[in-house]
Amino acid sequence: MTSRPEAELDTSAAAETKTASGDNTRKVFVRTYGCQMNVYDSERMTDVLAPQGYSTTADMEEADLVILNTCHIREKAAEKVYSELGRIRKVKEERAKAGKDMMVGVAGCVAQAEGEEISRRAPIVDMVVGPQSYHQLPSLLDKARQGQKVVETEFDIDAKFDHLSARAEKPIMKRPPAAFLTVQEGCDKFCTFCVVPYTRGAEVSRSVEQIVTEAQRMAASGVREVTLLGQNVNAYHGEAADGSTWGLGKLLRRLSEIDGLDRLRYTTSHPRDMDDDLIEAHRELKSLMPYLHLPVQSGSDKILKAMNRKHTRDEYFRLIDRIRVAAPDIALSGDFIIGFPGETDQDFEDTMDLIRRVEYGSAFSFKYSQRPGTPGATMEDQVPEDVKSVRLQELQALLSEQQKAFNASRKGMTCDVLLEKKGRNPGQLVGKSPWLQPVQLDAPESMIGSVQAVEIVEIGSNSLFGRLIAGQDAADGSGAIPAPAA
Ligand code: 5AD
Ligand code: SF4
């Protein structure tokens, strides 16, 4: 299961950071496309580059090194990268006129999928680096500086994970209150529409010890909420110190014991891997937030089978029922693909019916896009674009209605909010509700990084508006409690 859609997370490395050595002589600009895993990977790349004297910049023109961390999940991903490289070429030429050099790297899933083709089509690219090779960036940069065209797309994920955990030895630096932590990478599910098993490779889990160590360091550096990441995160099966294998439920229990980690989340999950222990963890753990991204993709048994999703709609309904019994308060989220080959009006109706029955708090939906190399790309009965568009609109209208209803149902509730950063207006902070909704409220800056009890007083189109409940200790309750009557 892949994580959030690319439109959601087209971020650039915006923050200026100091290198570990304090030697800020070089600047790196990282543009991140795609899911949270790419956001996490971009942070790791800048971590690896820091000891080389690189600090991040949000201004490409002053960058000595530009990295595009790319996504290949849907439509025209590679083409977008090539057109961005065209723009970068101009910036590079301008810098060259001023006597300044600029190296260009392409990382992420497009790098993995396209390999040498990238430096052939875009000669300004000095380095093509697949997701399993980021730990080698310093040596790859050295090679590129010597004029070699570097293409590194080997799948050596264990080496990558070993290296990632070594960063836990570095001095503790202050970090934002909410952060990602990769626990699992790759996928063995082979849904027939999806490139992930090809670009990210087979499923690999990090060891329990590596994850706990990294989470402890995160907590010590100010992180209050950790979202565990994996393309198929609930397939996690990591080795523990005693040689046994832990599932995600057990890992979450262990992480919930870490002082300072008030909140835990995980994404993205496959329905088939939602085991009893993980469901039980939702009932048991106060720090496990009541939000679950559990994509179903389609509500039609015929399409689910063609997608190789390995479950039926009834099995999905039964699973949702079990989850809601354990965690009645949970906000469900999902992904939907419209217009998979062979999808008829009736199949689409089945998807609409499933949505009506489940009632989602939020969801993402996409038109099916033929991904080269996947079985779906060559299936017969591809659905015409105009049909996909009409269906998508109808489906998004329903999902948006459900999201509004879910948001509106929070009005008048008091809930815990993790205050993450300053808001747009002076005196305002922005945080997250337990159900992952942004919440805006007036609060002093000193509260950034703390969990506060907040009454939800107003519902906006994209966020909730809240009011601090003075004097109420929020630290031990993650769910909603009714607001006192006025
Ligand atoms: N076409 C459309 N959507 C896709 N997704 C993955 N592959 C495709 C594709 N070929 C969607 C799925 C997945 C989300 C991250 O992206 O819904 O869950
Ligand atoms: Fe998710 Fe299926 Fe892709 Fe695996 S193959 S990442 S389960 S959509």
Average the pLDDT over all residues and give the rounded result: 89
CATH superfamily of the largest domain: tm_1862 like domain
Q: Which small compounds were modeled alongside the protein?
A: 5'-deoxyadenosine, iron/sulfur cluster
CATH class of the largest domain: Alpha Beta
N/C terminus separation: 45 Å
Low-confidence spans: pLDDT under 50, at least 5 residues?
2-23, 473-486
**What class do helices, strands and sheet pairing give?**
alpha/beta
Main beta sheet strand tally, sense and closure: 7 strands, mixed
CATH architecture of the largest domain: Alpha-Beta Horseshoe
User: What would the CATH topology of the largest domain be?
Assistant: pyruvate-formate lyase- activating enzyme
Count of domains: 3
Helix content, binned percent: 25-40%
Principal-axis shape equals: globular
Beta-strand percentage range: 15-25%
Number of strands: 23
Helix count? 14
Radius of gyration: 23 Å
Descriptive report:
It is a single chain. Helix 9 packs parallel to helix 10 and helix 13 runs parallel beside helix 14. The chain has 486 residues and is α/β, with parallel strands linked by helices. The chain has three domains: 149 residues, 3-Layer(aba) Sandwich (Rossmann fold), CATH 3.40.50; 250 residues, Alpha-Beta Horseshoe (pyruvate-formate lyase- activating enzyme), CATH 3.80.30; 70 residues, OB fold (Dihydrolipoamide Acetyltransferase, E2P) (Beta Barrel). Strand 6, helix 5 and strand 7 form a beta-alpha-beta unit. It is globular and about 60 Å long. It has 14 helices and 23 strands. Iron/sulfur cluster binds next to helix 7.
